[in-house]
Amino acid sequence: MNRKNTGIPMTDKALLFINGVPPEILPALEAYFLIACTDGAFHYLKNKNFPLEKLGFISGDFDSHSGNDESIYQEKFIYTPDQDKTDFEKALEILLQRGATAVDVYGGSGGEMDHFLGNLTVAFKAKDALKITFFDEFGTYFFSPKNLLIENVKHCKISLYPFPFTENVTSIGLNWTLNKENLNLTSRIGTRNFAVEDQVKITFENGDLLVFHSHRPAAEL
Predict the structure, then answer these.
(1) What number is the average pLDDT over the span 121-145?
(2) Nearest in space to 12 (alpha carbons), one of 31, 37, 36
(3) 39 in the Ramachandran plot: left (φ > 0), alpha (ψ -120 to 50) or beta?
């Protein structure tokens, strides 16, 4: 597809809504070349008066799907019945096939915690193919690259969570700094820190690291 001639933004970032807690505020849709949702998320988008015609596809096994008033969108439905994969995982596979390199995900947290943990596992498996960033009412979270710069976060809570270990972690701009230190799920994690500078830099050498940062200053949480 030649996006220069289609009016599609020159980006490879997609937007995906999945069946967790609905976002309080919808993101700016113009930033994405493709917008999609799983079948359960379709219902809360409809209730929030989301412009459903902007959806590129709705995927899932449709076990959460009911009613006939969506019939005008039937051509956008992609039936993915594989019970060995979650609807989130199957939606990511479709986005990857359609050219996405980054995905912003809404609805990944809240509700049943096994769903949340499952979503993290899916994102972990896909992290080498897709840059996945989750958004919820508190903040954002994502698997960090080995060299990370976060801007405009002064006073915001920053948590570092090894998945399951992260070696030689160094941080600049956090209240409790790390200097080539190791984090491990069973011994030491780095949660509930906060930024004392507007820029926070995090580097590590081995392992995987989940980074959570709040939208609001820590004192307001």
Answers:
(1) 96
(2) 31
(3) alpha
